[in-house]
Every structure is written in structure tokens, then in C-alpha cells.
Amino acid sequence: MSTQIKTRFAPSPTGEMHIGNLRSALFAYLFAQKNQGEFILRIEDTDQTRYQEGSVDAILGGLEWAGIKYDGEITYQSKRIAIYQKYADELVKAGHAYHCFCTADDLATMRQEQTADGSTVTRYDRRCLNLSAEEVKAKLAAGTPHVIRLKVPTGETEFIDLIRGKVKINNADVDDQILLKSDGFPTYHLANVIDDHEMGITHVIRAEEWLPSTPKHIILYQMFGWEIPAFAHLSMVLAPDRSKLSKRHGATSVLEFKNLGYLPEAVVNYIALLGWNPGTEQEVFSLAELEQEFDLAKVNKAGAIFDIEKLNWLNGHYIRQKELGELTKMCVPYLQQAGYLDEKSEIRNQGSEIKESFEYIKLVVGLEQERLKKLSEIGERTKYFFVRPKVDQKMLVWKKSTPAETQERLQFLLEFLATVPEENWTRNTLEEVLVQEIKKRGYGNGDTLWPMRVALSGEEKSPSPFEIAEVLGKDETVERIKMSVN
Asked: Which candidate in 168, 247, 399, 400 is catalytic?
């Protein structure tokens, strides 16, 4: 009978949840889903000095936002200290670990001596391993502060990484890692191995920064006589210039992406493609499709390049797929943030009586739905629908036209649009009757429609004047053109 696949996501609550963290969680989740396994969440909170308030909420919020569901209860390592201490004592009794009484000053001197000749490699010199049993007993009885260190055996440690293939490391290059700190708390290495074993984790999928630590973990598994899980180390997420990803390359925390108006579907889709190649031309994947398609064998070991433009393209795609009513509700907080809507989502600063707020906002959002790349753009792109623009008179003039001709065209628009019945006030009808009348009068489309668009929006770039006029309504359209007429 085959063992059920079990993966885990084991973040430390030491700050914001970043894209690299979310990708590790996603890949572990997808692998479990693909193999009808379980995905476990464990909070590795034993390093009390680095703990940051709100970090656990950020982790849980990020996973929920992305739609990544974990099985069972959350495990908090800080509630399992006695278990780690018990196992550490077992290692000491078996001769696999030892008490180290070196002070911080001792270790600093040791490092200075080891780097005096220009060497950059420092390693604990095992001086406490040579203490006699009596010396150790006396120091413990005296309450001398100490840690417990791993006694790394001689030889080599070899394992197959599911992404990188065979990895072989000489144990002489592996430090005698601290397993239990002087405050009785375990280090990552000890707690990680014990918990993975006790939780029945079959596959450890994590970032490549943990690759050098894997031999220490395998040595611990061997010392305890436990089955060793499979390991898969995911490559780094890099900036386009192959440097470490930072804020200057775009948002890096999951919460920041959410606040900027990226949709979870887009972010999940995008980070799935960071290092994983489905082997087809398909680029758009729902979470359900990823659960079916994901394969660790198709994860690359080369660094994954984070391309904000590709993410923006995907986000725009998902925005276009949204039902307009739902998208409008998603845009409301950004319009409130811009100051166009109050806390009740009612429109502030209305130039004239316009349609009921939500229906009007829906028209505005519908006009931008095809153009938006992220929800946070909605405020800047639609300002003129909520606040009458201050029109630059020079901008009103089309290419080779003159200010006098422009004023003549605006006067024509003012008079003609006033005759269009309310029931015909749609973008298609407006375009049809207006273009026909422009032709009839011998005007040019550019020198007439350009000033109309600028008078309505105050912008050089905006949707067509017919689309804007339809949303603004007849009264507001006519009023804005009147304001541009000298």
C-alpha cells in the first residue's frame, strides 16, 4: 500500500509574506492536490527574536486570498518546545550530539583566528567535543549556559533532489550545527526535521536557500533512524537583471499586490509560471487547471525571472473576464481612495444630477474594463467622470486647426447635441448622427471630435467622445462643452 503524499508550507512569522513564499506554498499545494494528498500549514515561530506582530495574520490572509487551502489544524512550533528538547537529549545520549559551552566571545575569537589568513569559511572547531564526561557533568551541574550541537559524521551525504538531480556534499564542509539554543528553544534544523517526521511529510518543497542545509537534515533523519522525505528545492525568483527581487522591480509582498489591485487569479497564475513550464503554449490557467496540470518534473532549476509587464498583462486578462457588476464592486474602494466616492459609495462633487451612483459607476468601470491592467488605475483613469476637468484651451485645438475654427466646432456641437433626444443618447447613435452632420457641413472628423473629447475629459488620451458622452449623459455633456466655448 502506497504512502499518502503529504506536503507542507512552513513559514516563519518574521515579516510580510512575499511572492517567493507564496510560490513555495503554491507548488507544495499543487503537488499535493495533483496526487490526492494533504497540504499542511506549520508556523515556525521558535525564533522569538525575529517574530513580528501581525506576520501570522499576513500569512493566513495571503493564503486565503490566493485560494490555497490547507488541511487540518495549524501547527505552531512554539507550542512543541518540550518535544524538541526530548529529541535533542536523545541525540546527546546516543553520541550524535554534544553540549557546547562556548560563549559569544569565544566564537568571535574563533572566527577571527580562522579568517586571519584571508579565508572566508568559518566553522565551529569542536573544542567542546573534546571535553571529558566529568567536565560536561560539572558544567551542567553549575548551570553553565550551553547549546546542543550536531556531531556531523565523517564521509559524504548524497541525495536526489527532484528538481536538481543528484546532490553530493562532503560532510567535512558541514558545520556542527546548533540544534538547541541556550534558551532551550530549537533551531530551525532540529524542529524542522522532527515536525516533518511526526507530521508524515513525504515531500519537502522549499526555496533553494535551504539546499545547503539539507545534508544536516538528512544526517538527523539517519541518526534518528527515520525515513527520509523527498526534497525539491525551488529556484530563486529574480529581477529582470538577475539580481535579487526587491521593491524597485515592483511590489514584492502579497498584501502589496492585493492593495495595488492585482486579482488573486492573476497572481496565482503568474507565479505558477515562475519556474514551471507546462510544456505547451498555454499561459492562462485557473487554480483548478493548475491542480490538474502541475508536475514537479517540469519545474526548472534555473532562476525564475519576475516580469511585472507579464503579470500586468495577465491581470488585465482576468479583469476583462470579470462580470461587470462584480468588477464595479471591486473598483469602489479605489474610487473611494481617490476621493470620488464617500464611505456610502455615493458620488462626491457631482457636476449635475446624474444617474443613481452604482449604475453610473458601473458605466464608468465598463468603459475602462478593456483597458485596465490593475484595479488601482481606475481612479486616475476616470477622474473626469467624477470631477469636471479644467480644460487647457491649447489642447482643444486639433493639429492644423486654429483656435477660431475650434471655437466654431464647439459652438456647432453645443447646438447640435442639444437637439439629440434623450432616448437616442447612446454611443452608437451619437456617432452615427454626429459623423453624418460633420460630413454634411464639410467639417473634418478630427477638428470636430478632438475638441469634443478634450472638452469632456480634459485629457489627451481617453475613450472616444461618444463613449464618454454616453456615460456622462446629455445634460452634463452639453454643460461641459458650453464651459469650453469662449
From this structure: 247
